[in-house]
Amino acid sequence: MEYTAEPGQFVLLAARASADAHNLDALQQLRTSLGAQVGAAGNVDFEQIDRVESAAVSLASAHYDLIITNPTAPWAVEHSSQALASLLLALKPNGSLLLAEIVLDRPGSLEQSPITRTKEELEQQLRFAGFVDSHIECRDSVSDETLRLLAEKCWKLPNADAFVDQARGHIRLATASAKKPAYNVGAAAALSFGKKAKSGTAASDKPARKVWMIRVDSDDDDDAEIEDQDELLKDEDLVRPDMASLARPGDLKPRRKPCKNCTCGLADGGDVDESQACKPAETKKAKKPVDVVNVKSSCGSCSLGDAFRCSSCPYLGMPAFKPGEQVKLGGSMLHDDFMP
Asked: What is the pTM of this model?
């Protein structure tokens, strides 16, 4: 895949490189080529993808126009969600990401392999990270030489030959391109819920608001009729009532107002003799305190407790006691539950 940049762009080149890596020369050549393309107005930076993933380095927010990651063989980087999120923050709005990664041809094609995802899963990971307009292409299978280099130098597998035989034809190189949305993370915009009239615009120039109307003279529906409310009234309904007709009949006397504690039934609207005054309401007598000392029980079970008492026993709710003994609350029952 050929990587190009526009003049004046800020480019970030991210890859996994070390002193014994086999892609140092290719990375240096790519960085030199990109530097010549962006010119003096642009810049090409390089950063280890492992440091970006572990947050050991903090990339400048919305700084790069183009980010190229894992561009050279043996493509040993599997981009995590943390790495993709950091790269998204470093891109400017509408910035581009060019990514290369080796993927499986189908899920579960290899029993033991550091490679875990397919082309579809890589595209899903890009969407979850926040990228848009993602496009992924899969090339031919990775060569045996690259597989052996991955197994021996990058993944340090104990049996590289067995892995190459197992992975032959099942691992492909995927190249992806995606963009950052046209807004930056944390951007805000005001929502206009109503437009104010400009100064100098007359109020009469505004169009009148439309309201619901019913057309009674519609020619399309001849059968539709609306009832005239005046025709529903009779002649006697239009006559104004006379004050004499509203007066109380002569043989009907006004009723007196019932008392507050009425006991004769006048407040209920019944026919009562109003010449007799209401009888005073009966006052309930206060209950005498239950005598626990001089207990006289007809059943002999009052002192045993509620389980043995009758339904009308005056000792219901009291604890069990001995006849002649005064009930007392002992212990902490006389103290407040809350101690300041």
From this structure: 0.54
